[in-house]
Amino acid sequence: MSEHARKRVLIVEDEDDVRESLAVVLEFEGYPVLEAAHGGEALERLRSGDGDVGLILLDLFMPTMNGWAFRDEQLRDPTLARIPVVVITADPSAARRARSLGVLDAMTKPFDFDRLLALVGRHC
Known about the structure:
CATH architecture: 3-Layer(aba) Sandwich
Mean pLDDT: 91
Strand content: 15-25%
Largest sheet: 5 strands, parallel
Radius of gyration: 13 Å
Distance between the termini: 9 Å
Shape: globular
Number of domains: 1
Number of helices: 6
Order of helices and strands: EHEHEHHEHEH
CATH class: Alpha Beta
Strand order of the largest sheet: 2-1-3-4-5
Structural class: alpha/beta
CATH superfamily: Response regulator
CATH topology: Rossmann fold
């Protein structure tokens, strides 16, 4: 698939170094990336039509609007609800609980990048 045909990956993560590391890896693999530091910013990016988003990588524990609240808002909007979500968290128990949110998958930090890239490749 050419880079121009790929959908964007939206990374929603409050830790700058984690968000930037994910962006670097994904961009190196040819995926266009959008970044947001919290759920509120992510909703703004999505609602602004800031590119066709194929997958959301969502941290759960963030200030301003956490991942749980973001997912609740996302599911209320039929246009946004169709975008698959992969939860990324440092807390294994939160990753297990996140599956109740109807997410595609949940991954714990540090990431298995091969698994992450496989998920991104299927949706973007």
